[in-house]
Amino acid sequence: MTKKGDLEAIERTPSHLQQGSAKNITNDAVFGEITADGPNYRSLGWIATAILMSKSMIGLGVLSIPAAFDVLGIIPGVLCLLAIGSLTSISAYVVGTFKMNHSEVYAIDDVGYKLFGVVGREFFGAAFIVYWTFVVGSGMLSVSIALNAISTHGACTAVFVVVAFAATFLVCSIRTLGRISFIAWAGLASILASILLVTIAVGVQDRPAAAPSSGPWKSDYKLFGGPKFLDAASAISSLVFAYAGTTTFFAIAAEMREPKHYAKSLTVCQILVNSTYVSIGIVVYYFCGSYVASPALGSAGPLLKKVAYGIGILGVFVSAVLLSHVTAKYIFVRLLRGTRHLTSNSPQHWLVWLSCTFGVTVVAYIIASAIPVFNSLVSLIGAFFGTLMSFQPFGMMWLYDNWKTDKSKRSIKWYLMCTWSFFVIVAGTFLMISGTWGSVLTIISDYSATGGSAAWSCADNSNSV
């Protein structure tokens, strides 16, 4: 049986275990008995962990940052981005310490159980599934956008979404993150190369694609934007969304061979993510101004748009694969936790696992294709669930482990972390309410504009980007 609190680092299965020796069975606090007869869920090295963390954050969402800067202005935009990046960096560090203190924690629902009991577990579990299933659907649509851009709308968009669904299901059904990490490397390189191409292109071209084609032109970037409250809240929510992958770090940490290296992986991830976000946001917005596209891959003109999407399509696809895998794995662990089928190769194991991956991807496909205002709905889900899972729980987690520290042991660091914890809870709640309000108004506007008639559309969805 699983030993609660077992922090033993699980190395790759030795050769003598592969020959059938039963005496080297290892117990994991989440997965139970791990043997050579089943998948080794604890096979991630620290470098692969850093890549998976980075890829869970860096997607086409980074290319909405320049548009957010257009609303806020460069200086407030950079300050907001750095503030959110700092908060999420500390939050992600708390994920690692909380996991080390409570090794039986696998996902945000286990945190909810510790904080609020059964109600907390079910609420956060449902929020996790709903949120990431919508994001997977968004990823499938992003793949269809890329295919439309590359092929100049060579087929009905609904067909491209089906292609994205089928490919996502097949690849995300690989059972362990250790075996799936190789595509994360390729996906991260793909999206970074695509972003770099666009960044260089807008810097060397005379003007962005959306700018007037004749006459003198100069970028109309703003140092300070002066937006209305709801516009600012929506822009800040898009910045929060770019960092919302933090909630997947629990599942990634659970499959590390050496959990003690979590902080090292996180440091690499945050340096890469924050430097990418800040540099891309500033450079692209500086050269494009109010004519920046969102996502920004279309800012450099039709030809470079094709090239950029051609390079970046793997990165977009990998995002859908990774997030659908993590979501399906969460459901899978919830269903089989505490049974021998979780880590065996039994028929029940495979039936449940493939049912989970198929279920997540097919539901993501349906809601992505059937909901006429899907993009706005993703913004609503992100503003509510994404913010809720990216801020408040992490402040509560630190307080849960440290609030009762003896008064004689309360250092300056303790008081600073208490201040940070309360600030994260309050700031997250404010952003959740304001972002949700703005998203609801946008959905009403979008639904009125489309008349609710865009389900399973064949229209080219890459024209606006």
UniProtKB/TrEMBL annotation:
Keywords: Membrane, Transmembrane, Transmembrane helix. It holds the Pfam family Aa_trans. It is found in: Membrane. GO terms for molecular function: L-amino acid transmembrane transporter activity. InterPro entries: AA_transpt_TM. Coiled coil: none annotated. It comes from Aaosphaeria arxii CBS 175.79. Its main location: membrane. Residues 44-440 form the Amino acid transporter transmembrane domain. It is a multi-pass membrane protein. Belongs to the amino acid/polyamine transporter 2 family. This is Amino acid transporter transmembrane domain-containing protein. The chain crosses the membrane at residues 44-65, 71-95, 123-146, 152-171, 183-204, 232-254, 266-287, 307-328, 349-371, 377-400, 412-433. GO terms for cellular component: membrane.
